[in-house]
TrEMBL record:
Family label: Belongs to the ABC transporter superfamily.
Gene3D superfamilies associated with the record: P-loop containing nucleotide triphosphate hydrolases (3.40.50.300)
GO biological processes: peptide transport; transmembrane transport
GO molecular function: ATP binding; ATP hydrolysis activity
Keyword Membrane set for record: yes
Name of the featured protein: ABC-type dipeptide transporter
Keywords, sorted A to Z: ATP-binding, Cell inner membrane, Cell membrane, Membrane, Nucleotide-binding, Transport
Known function: Part of the ABC transporter DppABCDF involved in the uptake of various di/tripeptides. Is also involved in the uptake of phaseolotoxin, a toxic tripeptide inhibiting the enzyme ornithine carbamoyltransferase. Responsible for energy coupling to the transport system.
PROSITE patterns to which the protein is assigned, alphabetical: ABC_TRANSPORTER_2
Catalytic reaction equation(s): a dipeptide(out) + ATP + H2O = a dipeptide(in) + ADP + phosphate + H(+)
Subcellular location field: Cell inner membrane
Length: 322
C-alpha cells in the first residue's frame, strides 16, 4: 500500500474547563494545528516537558479522543469514521500501551480472561483459536502460556508491562502508540522492555509512536523525533539530525538540560527565561515568546509558519538566525 501509514492534518483539540454556574464554561486548547506523517515500520518519538500535550496527542492518534479540528488518517481511513466495520478494523490495527501497567489491568480477573475479552470484541475467533492466540502473544513477550491463569498481582511491574504489550500485539496491529511505556520501571527492566519492543518491531513489522520524557531512550528507539511545547510542534525531523543540530531555541534548551544529549549537540544553547508554559497559553504569537531570549515583537504577535531547513521542520521566526 502506498502513502504514509499515519497522517495528521491540522489537528487541534480543546477541553471544556468547568466554571461555577452561571458562568459559561471556557475551553482550553491542548493541541494546536498538529500535522505530520509516519511511514510503515518507523518510529516517531514525541518529546517535551510535562503539560506539552504529548499524552493528549497519543489518545487522539489511538482513536480514544476525537480532535476538535483536523483529521487523523490511518492507511488513508478516517480514524473517527462512523462505519462500524471500519471502526473495528482500526481498533485492531492501532493499539495503545499505557504508562502504568498496574492501572491498565483489572486486578479481579486473570490475565487470560482480560486478553480473551479483547479478542471476543474485536475478532471472530472461536474459543480454541482465542486461547492459541493468547499463548502465542505471551510467548512473543517472553512469558509462559500458564501465565494466562495468573492475576496481575502475581506479576512484577515489568511482567505486567509485558502483558500490556501482549494485549496490544495479539490483534496483529500495524501501529502501537506507547505512552511512556517504561518510565515506571527500574533501569534494568527498562532496557529489557526497550529491547523487546525493538525486536517486536523487526519481527512483526510494527510502527510506533513513542511518547517519552527520556531523551536518551527516544534517541535509541526512534527514527524521527517531534518536539512539543504548550500543545504545539516546535521541531520535527530525523532523530540523528535533530539531536546533533537542533534549530529551535526550545529544542536546544530541552536537550541541553540532559547531560548525555548535550554532549552530542553541535550547537550551543541559551537558557530560557521564566517557567514552563501550558498548552493553549498563547492565543497569538509563538507560545515560547514569553521565555525565549531571542523573541521580539513579531514573535509575540504572529504565529511562526512551518519552515523546512535541511531535513528539519522548524516552527520559529528566527530559525537559522540564532
Amino acid at each position: 500500500m502506498t502513502g504514509p501509514l499515519l497522517s495528521l492534518n491540522h489537528v487541534s483539540h480543546r477541553f471544556a474547563v468547568q466554571r461555577d454556574w452561571p458562568a459559561r464554561a471556557r475551553q482550553k486548547t491542548a493541541l494546536h494545528d498538529i500535522s505530520f506523517t509516519l511511514d510503515r515500520g518507523r518510529t516517531l518519538a514525541v518529546v517535551g516537558e510535562g503539560g506539552s500535550g504529548k499524552s493528549t496527542l497519543a489518545r487522539v492518534i489511538a482513536g480514544l479522543l476525537k480532535p476538535s479540528e483536523g483529521e487523523v488518517r490511518f492507511n488513508g481511513i478516517d480514524m473517527y469514521t462512523r462505519e462500524r466495520e471500519l471502526q473495528l478494523q482500526l481498533r485492531r490495527h492501532v493499539r495503545m500501551v499505557f504508562q502504568n501497567p498496574n492501572a491498565s489491568l483489572n486486578p479481579r480477573t486473570t490475565i487470560g480472561q482480560q486478553l480473551e475479552l479483547a479478542l471476543q470484541h474485536l475478532t471472530q475467533l472461536g474459543p480454541r483459536q482465542r486461547i492459541e492466540r493468547i499463548n502465542e502473544a505471551l510467548s512473543k513477550v517472553g512469558l509462559q502460556a500458564d501465565h494466562k491463569d495468573h492475576y496481575p498481582h502475581q506479576f512484577s511491574t515489568g511482567q505486567r508491562q509485558r502483558v500490556a504489550i501482549a494485549r496490544a500485539i495479539m490483534l496483529n496491529p500495524q501501529l502501537i502508540v506507547a505512552d511512556e511505556p517504561i518510565s515506571t520501571l527500574d533501569a534494568s527492566v527498562q532496557a529489557q522492555i526497550m529491547n523487546l519492543m525493538l525486536d517486536l518491531q523487526d519481527t512483526l513489522s510494527l510502527s510506533y509512536v513513542l511518547i517519552s520524557n527520556d531523551l536518551a531512550i527516544a534517541k535509541v528507539m526512534s527514527d524521527q523525533i517531534m518536539v512539543m511545547y504548550a500543545g504545539e510542534i516546535m521541531e520535527y525531523g530525523p532523530v540523528e539530525t535533530v539531536y546533533e543540530t537542533p534549530l529551535h531555541p526550545y529544542t536546544r534548551a530541552l536537550f541541553a538540560a540532559s547531560p548525555s544529549i548535550r554532549d552530542v549537540m553541535k550547537v550551543s544553547s541559551t537558557p530560557l527565561r521564566g517557567e514552563l508554559g501550558s498548552a493553549g497559553m498563547a492565543a497569538v504569537g509563538c507560545p515560547l515568546s514569553r521565555r525565549c531570549p531571542f523573541a521580539d515583537e513579531h514573535c509575540k504577535t504572529a504565529r511562526p509558519e512551518r519552515r523546512l531547513m535541511e531535513q528539519q521542520l522548524v516552527f520559529c521566526h528566527k530559525a537559522g538566525e540564532v
